[in-house]
Every structure is written in structure tokens, then in C-alpha cells.
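Appendix B. Chain record.
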Amino acid sequence: MRRQIMKQLPVFVALIVLLVGALGVTAYILSNQRFYLPAWVPLIGTDFYEVKAELPTAQAVVPGQGQTVNVAGVKVGEVGQVNLENGRAVVSMQIKDKYKPIYKDASILLRPKTGLKDMILSLDPGTPGAGELKEGGRVSVANTLADVNADEVLSSLDADTRAYLQILINAGGTALRDDSSDGRQGAPADLREALKRFEPTARDAARFTRLLAKRRTNIKRAIHSFQTLSTELGSKDDQLARLVESANANFEAFAQEESSLREALRLFPGTLSQTSTTLRDVSGLATELGPALQKLRPFARELAPSLRAQRPFLRETTPIIRDQVRPFARDVQPTVRDLKAATADLAPVASRLNRSFKVLNTFFNELAYDPPDGDSFLFWSAWAAHSGALLTTTQDAHGPMIRGIVLLNCTAYLALQGIVAGNPQLGELTRLANFPPERQVCPRNFDDPTHLLALDEVPSLIPPGPAP
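C-alpha cells predicted for this chain:
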């Protein structure tokens, strides 16, 4: 056989080339016909990960027509079978094994690829936190959305709305139709000019969006803070419940005081009027107060160093207040509460004490008053205190002594003058007694002539002799 092959080598080579070409053409045709070999075929086998999706409607979804499953515009699989289960369309998706897994919170959107309703399934794989969807798993109808046709939108409108829409479309066509005799396209040009007028709005909108982009970090921080606040409020549900109950009680109390609130609101306009009048009256004060405050600014600036200098003192006194004054205040609270009951009993007496103190105040004012034409009542208080000490003492530097009071009338005083003249020892005692002058204590002795005569005769009545 080898000899025959060598003899017919050109023919044999041609057959081999034709066979290889036929296999290549067949593989190309099958690849375009979405023919995949099983996964057990080495090198060219393909393994699929099958997932099902429930759709409200599978309109224009045809198996075997090359309708694809895309993720972010990238083909990841194809549409397999389409079945009807419990009034819902169930579409099998053949996902290539390298694009798995699909997660349980995946979402699917059925949308047209072309205007001829060549449909595709736009797939969002979901998040890993939801867990993987097992082989043959199903995406629920809650996470899928079918394509909405224009006729479905129009059919949802009532008859009047459809009529108005028809009028609007016809009017738009009439407005854009070129009716100019010179062939100038006036309506499109006017529309173009009108659209140009939106350029400032678009420019400002672009600036606004750029500013929003710059504040993206602040918005994120605000959202995070709001989330933290919501989480914290969620953990404080008991306190919030008590807050709501307290607010409810407060509102009930307000409701019970409705008549009082109405009366207060009735008086409120008058109060506002009086307040307005008062503010007008104090406008002069405000005018004077402004310059005064301006003049006080240097004092306020100079006061700052003094306040700063007080900080060490405040720091030193803080432990005293915290460790001594505050415990003392807490300790005396029971005593203060006991005294409160006692002071309540003293309240009736306090009013009478008030009147008594007023009388005493008037009395002491009279004592302290210094009239312009004389001396006050307290003028002789120092002399009285000194004299009182002299009168009440019973000894001096020489030892104990007996006090006595000598009372003389003017006649005896006149006679004493005569006796003193003849008795030097008695004269010394009278000098030490410091009697006031006769003219001061007995002025009548100098006004009455008989007394003057007696004054001349007194010395003769006392016989001369030696002093005892």
C-alpha cells in the first residue's frame, strides 16, 4: 500500500488538502451556528453554567437564534430553552463556565439589541454577600424586568390623552414642515435657533454637576454620618419609645390647656404691640448705648489679661470646690431640708420682724443723724463710755478705793470757796476734784448782788486756824 501511495502521491496529497479544507469550513460554519462540543472533548470542548430566569413575558425571545446574555456589554452566554411555568416565562441561560458564579441577588433586564427586536438579556451578576446561585438555580421575577413596547405605553393612556398626543404630533409635523415659497427651510432653522438658546442653561447645568462632583466627598460623609445616626437611633429604640410617650403626654397636657392657650393667643397681639412700643422707647437708649459700648472696648481688651491671670487661681480652686465645697453642699442638704420646714413656720413671724426692724432702723437713723445746728445723739457716747468706766471701777494703780459723789448747791459751793481759802489741804482736794468754775455752774451768784455780798463775807465766817 505504501508503494501505491508513493505512486499516487500527488493525488493523495490533494485528497489530504481537500479533507483539511473541508474540516476547516465545517468548523467555521458550525462555530457561526453556535455549535459547541461537550466539555469532555479536549482543547475545543466548552462547559456551560446553566441558570434560569423568571420573566413576566418572553416576547421575541427565541431559542437557537443566537440571542446572547451580556454583562456590561460583554457576551457571557446564550439563551437556551424558553418554557412556560405557572403563567410566567422561564428562560434558561447558558453561561460560560469562566464567567461564573452568578449570585442570588442578580438582576436581569430583557432589552432589544436592534430596532427589529433582536433581544438580549442584560445581566447584573449581583454581590458576593448574597451567596452564589447553584447550577440550575433561578432568578426570581422580582429581580427581572421585561422590555416595554411603545404600544404598551400608548395603550395605558386613556382615549382623551391619546387624542391630545395625536394632535401634538400632528402639530409638530406641521410646524417643522417647510412651507416657504423660496424653498428655505424656515421651521428647522427656527427650531435650531431655539435649541441654541438652551446653551447657557446647559453650560450652567454642567458647572452645577462639576460642583456636585467636587462635593462628592462631603456627600459621602453626610450619608455615612446619617447611616451612623440611623444605626445609633435603631439601638436606642427604648429611649425613642419613651421620648414619644413623653411627647404624647406633653401634647395631651397642651390639649388640656387649650382654653389657657387660646387666652394667651388672644393677649399675644397686645403683648406684641406693647413690645413694639417698648422697643421704640428704648431706641434712644440704644443710640446712647452704642457709643458707650464702643468706649468700653478698650476696657474689655484690657480685661482679657486679667482674666488670663485668673486661670491659675481657678485651677487651684477647682479641686477645693470639687473635693470640699461640693461634698459639704451634699452633706448639708438634709439639714437644709429640715430647716425648710422650720422656716415655713417662721414665715408668719417674718412679716412682724420686718416691721420691727423698720422701727429699729428708724431709731438708729435718729441716733446717727448729725443736725447742722447741733450735736447728734451719739456725740456724748464716747464721754459716757469713759465716764461709765470711771464710775464703775473699784480700784486704780494705788489699790482699792471707795467712790463717793459730792452734791453741792450754789450756796454750799459759795461757802466751800470760803472754807478752801483758809484750808490749804481742802483746797488741794478741791483742785484735784476739778470742780467746774463757779461762774459756769452758778451764774446767779454773779447776777444777784446779795450773793456777791455774801461771797465777800464768806471768808470771815470761817475762823482762821491751822489746818487739821
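Further analysis of this model is presented in Appendix C.
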